[in-house]
């Protein structure tokens, strides 16, 4: 009888050890599978992303935009009037790009227009499907530049809308005539924005137009990968904005051709 009990106890202990070993292997496999799935979710491109442009324009409305610069033909004009005209032309170009798309490949564009407000920014044309009429209306009526230049905070505000878009090509264009004078500098906020974008397997590009200010002021953001161009007068501002949109954002000549009959989602 005693021998039988010992045998049963040994059999029970052996079974428990085998069950524990199986449990350990299953648990290890589950943990490995969870890690692999998590890595795939972080590394793989966002399956929901659609081809299109998500664009925020940060437009300097600080008091210094009242100052005058060469406007052509030996004349001078306030910077905000020159910038208004250049921005209006860019809105027309974006609209042309959107409406002249091939019939089988409509172009999706989401955009918002942001201006300085106190120590941050506010949208005067809310981010959403590109609305050229709303942008033209605001540009036509803007005539009172005032306040400081909170570039970093304004870029941060604009980035939230752009990063929230499911369109694949994300851009922020900053048109400004001066240094950051309120809040964090652009080079302080941009790394965090890029990190957030990377966390969603996307990317975001920054483009600075230094209007009547030395472009070297923005050397720190250039080192972070931003486009930086300078403009001293009306002609240069129009030329540089056109360069950024044609070569960096719209890229019409580089769009991949779609097979006949293939429609974007």
Describe this structure in words.
The protein is α/β, with parallel strands linked by helices and 265 residues long. It has two domains: 1-44; 50-252, von Willebrand factor, type A domain (Rossmann fold). It is built from seven helices and eight strands. The protein has a six-stranded mixed sheet with strand order 5-4-1-6-7-8, with helices on both faces. Strands 2-3 form a two-stranded antiparallel ribbon. The longest helix has 42 residues, at 2-43.
Short note summarizing the structure:
The protein is of the alpha/beta class and 265 residues long. The chain is 46% helix and 23% strand. It contains 7 helices and 8 strands.
């Amino acid at each position: 009888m005693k021998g039988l009990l010992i045998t049963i106890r040994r059999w029970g202990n052996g079974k428990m050890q085998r069950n524990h070993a199986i449990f350990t292997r299953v648990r290890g496999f589950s943990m490995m599978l969870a890690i692999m799935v998590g890595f795939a979710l972080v590394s793989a491109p966002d399956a929901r992303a659609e081809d299109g442009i998500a664009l925020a324009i940060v437009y300097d409305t600080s008091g210094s935009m009242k100052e005058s610069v060469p406007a052509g033909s030996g004349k001078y004009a306030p910077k905000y009037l020159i910038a208004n005209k250049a921005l209006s032309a860019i809105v027309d170009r974006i609209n042309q790009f959107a409406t002249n798309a091939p019939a089988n490949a409509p172009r999706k564009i989401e955009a918002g227009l942001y201006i300085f407000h106190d120590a941050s920014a506010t949208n005067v044309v809310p981010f959403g499907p590109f609305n050229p009429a709303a942008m033209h209306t605001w540009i036509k009526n803007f005539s009172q530049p005032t306040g400081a230049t909170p570039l970093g905070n304004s870029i941060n505000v604009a980035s939230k809308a752009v990063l929230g878009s499911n369109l694949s090509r994300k851009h922020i264009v900053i048109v400004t005539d001066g240094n950051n004078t309120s809040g964090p500098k652009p080079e302080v906020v941009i790394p965090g924005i890029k990190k957030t974008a990377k966390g969603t397997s996307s990317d975001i590009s920054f483009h600075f137009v230094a209007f009547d200010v030395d472009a070297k002021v923005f050397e720190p953001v250039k080192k972070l990968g931003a486009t930086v161009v300078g403009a001293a007068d009306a002609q240069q501002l129009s030329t540089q904005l056109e360069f950024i949109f044609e070569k960096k954002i719209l890229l019409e000549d580089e769009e991949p051709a779609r097979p006949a009959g293939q429609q974007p989602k």
